[in-house]
Amino acid sequence: MLGVGEPAKGEANMRSTSEEPVPLHEEFIYCCGAATHVLKCGPWKDLSKDESKNLPRLLFMIIPGNPGLAGYYRTFIQALYCGLNQQYPVWVVSHAGHCKPPSGMEMIEDTDIKELEDVFGLSGQVEHKLNFLKKNVSKDIKLVLIAHSIGCYITLEMMKRASELQVLRSVLLFPTIERMAQSPQGKLMTPLLCKLRYVLYMPVYLLSFLPEGVKASLVRFALRGMKTCDESSIATSVNLFSLDCIANILYMASQEMMKVVERDSTTIKQNLKKLIFYYGTGDKWCPQHYYDEIKMDFPDGDIRLCEKGLRHAFVLDASKEMAAMITDWLRDDLTKL
User: In the Enzyme Commission scheme, what number(s) does this protein have (predicted)?
Assistant: First the structure.
């Protein structure tokens, strides 16, 4: 394991004035043999049973969308941690191979043991998250899984494959859990992702040689239409100039178009009381009629429609607003702990 960045400070120091940024503990590890970026908010660096004596009762774990870069959720987990009165750890785990590993660390672990045949694929990403939990989080700790976009599909699969997980709640934000290739954005992207994605590799390879400052300027230019853009999103987006990262991101996306077809209504029905769905009104990945249909199929479910006009990629400009909403939704659950 490679530890990078400032480690989390003691709880007393964490409870500083709200104006100060909440410090994060940042790690690059191998999980299922693939480079994985983990951001941990709170003083708890280790939640495994053998290493920690005073474990928290609950872990908030973020399952990202695609690109599955942990850095996109930096502001979100800090805001969520503060909204929870700094009582619970909030972690985000990148998708396997979506992060640019630090110097001295390869994208794939140099070992003769291959834990997963296709860790970068969609099914492999599910096993990657389950493996992370198994190795890093005590079974005694309850979980709140907060998933975004394709992370919602991954979360439902996690609950299906590992029913023993102590999931208190799963919050599914802008859930791409069905008919992705048939969505407005899917119709546009499927031919590119499934047939032409290799064409994108050459320009990315050439752009990777640009200085970091130039890359950041290109990202700012691409996001110029936004009134406000999270600075951490700009820094994180520079990772997209890495050929290894973009290859893994596009490969996973191509599988999403082919494999995310039918909604898993069985798993939803079995876990309905644990689930909160949050759909967008103008979301081209999961259009509003997907919301209408799931609302009709599960009238007793907690299925919400965004009334604030938030974009699918909310982490770019609405992380604090989303964190405040989730804190409010879960208030009753947390008071019962």
Answer: 3.1.1.13
